[in-house]
Design goal:
The strands form two sheets. A three-stranded antiparallel beta sheet has the order 1-2-5, with no helix packed on it. The protein is flat, with a radius of gyration of 20 Å. It is built from one helix and six strands, in the order H-E-E-E-E-E-E. It is mainly β and 90 residues long.
Length: 90
């Protein structure tokens, strides 16, 4: 009986009859990351703090930026080479 139930759930899931939940992989990672064309910094925090990040830029001077919780757009991925937390708040 359990085997038949498991098979039915598997079949319904594969047909899309059971609503899918978002996978953790779909969430933006913490820190620097790139999308298909843009670069972002995701400050993962639950305390509402703002932090200073160092942004590395191709063919231009690097700079520091204050970012709050969540995702911050840094620019086109072709221009931004990376970003990291410098160890202080702002």
């Amino acid at each position: 009986m359990t085997s038949a139930l498991g098979s039915a759930v598997l079949m319904l899931t594969s047909l899309g009859a059971v609503p899918a939940t978002a996978s953790p992989a779909a969430a933006a990672p913490c820190g620097y990351y790139e999308g298909s064309t843009d670069a972002f910094y995701n400050h993962c925090t639950s305390d509402g703090s703002k932090i200073v990040i160092h942004v590395r830029v191709a063919l231009e001077p690097d700079y520091e930026r204050c970012v709050g919780p969540g995702n911050t757009w840094l620019g086109p991925a072709s221009k931004i080479q990376g970003a990291h937390y410098v160890g202080r708040t702002c």
